[in-house]
């Protein structure tokens, strides 16, 4: 069972281990924060979150889960923030995620039951590791996740989503290691992000763009432009899950999406593909954009019934016998 074995009354505080370096199968170390409920003397079920956005941004969520009796692990993905290696968007998340999940299961404080949580890119990290079927994966809570990045993010029906792609690439690059190591590079990339309309007019981005100062980001952005059709590049694990649904394990999976979300198609596609082979798959769709649980989308107010705490719903799911 995945139910936490501590009552809330037993938890006096949350203990945090920052920047534990976890080694992957190829020797790259990933920066990892571990949150454990204080006063605990039993082995715990664990919840894993893997992010490219900086693990420090998930402190409140991690503490909320840990306060309910779970060990919580938040990890910077390869090449981002405190983690070693080079960041190539999505492609390394399957094997790295498998290694992280099995590493958690081997910790002395863990009872061997590990679930996953998160939205958007964090949803992709969950789906990617699931394809590799880690033996200690017990459940997943996947929020606004893609099923095929060629259709849900980079493009739609063969049309390149220029605004989304340029915003996302420049944003990530401005937070990347090249920008961290050289302030001039950081200024150039942040300025380009601020001057986005000018760079949209100058598209496609080439070696004369600010991305030349962040070559690892220029590489995968250029690869997106090179693969203008749905080919094997877009069928890789990390970019694509609908081609790999048959490889997912039969564990309880909760999918959350929004009717106005960029990944609506992907959420529905994942549910359709996974539910046909796994009766433990659940879907929740709300009147939300990429921000779930809120009452409005654009100028439309859907009322208080649209408000939902995604964290609370995840805890309800995780604690189900």
Primary descriptors:
single chain, alpha/beta, 2 domains, Rossmann fold, eight-stranded mixed beta sheet, two-stranded antiparallel ribbon, 33% helix, 12 strands, 321 residues
Structural overview:
By secondary structure, this protein is an alpha/beta fold. It has 2 domains: about 10-150 and about 235-320, Alpha/Beta hydrolase fold, catalytic domain (Rossmann fold, 3-Layer(aba) Sandwich); about 160-230, no CATH class. It is built from 11 helices and 12 strands. It has helices at about 60-65, 95-105, 120-130, 150, 160-175, 175-180, 185-195, 195-200, 215-225, 265-275, 310-320, and strands spanning about 15-25, 30-35, 45-50, 70-75, 110-120, 135-145, 155, 160, 255-260, 280-285, 295, 300. The strands form 3 sheets. An 8-stranded mixed sheet has the order 1-2-4-3-5-6-9-10, sandwiched between helices. A hairpin with a 2-residue loop joins strand 11 and strand 12 (about 300). The chain starts with 13 loop residues before the first strand and ends with a helix. The model has no long low-confidence stretch (mean pLDDT about 95).
Main sheet summary: 8 strands, mixed
The mean pLDDT is: 93
Q: Using the CA coordinates, give the radius of gyration.
A: 20 Å
Number of domains: 2
Structural class: alpha/beta
**Spatial ordering of strands, largest sheet:** 1-2-4-3-5-6-9-10
The 3D shape can be described as globular
- Runs in which pLDDT lies below 50 for 5 or more consecutive residues are none
What is the CATH T-level topology of the largest domain? Rossmann fold
Kindly report how far apart the N and C termini lie. Answer: 6 Å
**What is the helix tally?**
11
Beta fraction: 15-25%
């Amino acid at each position: 069972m995945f139910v936490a074995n501590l009552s809330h009354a037993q938890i006096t505080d949350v203990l945090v281990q920052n920047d534990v370096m976890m080694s992957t199968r190829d020797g790259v170390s990933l920066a990892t924060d571990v949150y454990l409920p204080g006063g605990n003397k039993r082995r715990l079920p664990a919840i894993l979150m893997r992010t490219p956005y900086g693990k420090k941004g998930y402190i409140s969520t991690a503490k909320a889960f840990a306060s309910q009796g779970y060990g919580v692990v938040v990890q910077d993905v390869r090449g981002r923030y405190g983690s070693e290696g080079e960041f190539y968007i999505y492609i390394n998340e399957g094997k790295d995620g498998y290694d992280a999940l099995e590493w958690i299961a081997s910790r002395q404080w863990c009872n061997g039951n590990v679930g996953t949580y998160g939205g958007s890119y964090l949803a992709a990290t969950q789906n990617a590791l699931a394809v590799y079927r880690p033996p200690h994966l017990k459940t997943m809570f996947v929020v606004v996740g893609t099923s095929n990045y060629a259709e849900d993010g980079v493009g739609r029906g063969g049309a390149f989503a220029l605004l989304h792609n340029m915003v996302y690439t420049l944003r990530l690059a401005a937070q990347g290691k090249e920008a961290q190591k050289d302030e001039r590079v950081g200024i150039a990339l942040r300025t380009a992000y601020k001057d986005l309309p000018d760079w949209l007019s100058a598209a496609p981005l080439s070696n004369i763009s600010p991305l030349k100062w962040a070559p690892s980001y220029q590489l995968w952005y250029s690869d997106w432009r090179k693969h203008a059709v749905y080919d094997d590049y877009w069928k890789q694990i990390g970019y694509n899950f609908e081609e790999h649904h048959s490889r997912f394990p039969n564990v309880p999976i909760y999918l959350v999406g929004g009717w106005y979300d960029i990944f609506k198609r992907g959420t529905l596609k994942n549910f359709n593909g996974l539910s046909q082979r796994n009766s433990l798959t659940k879907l929740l769709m709300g009147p939300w954009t990429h921000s779930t649980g809120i009452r409005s989308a654009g100028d439309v107010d859907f009322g208080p019934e649209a408000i939902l705490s995604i964290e609370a719903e995840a805890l309800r799911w995780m604690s189900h016998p």
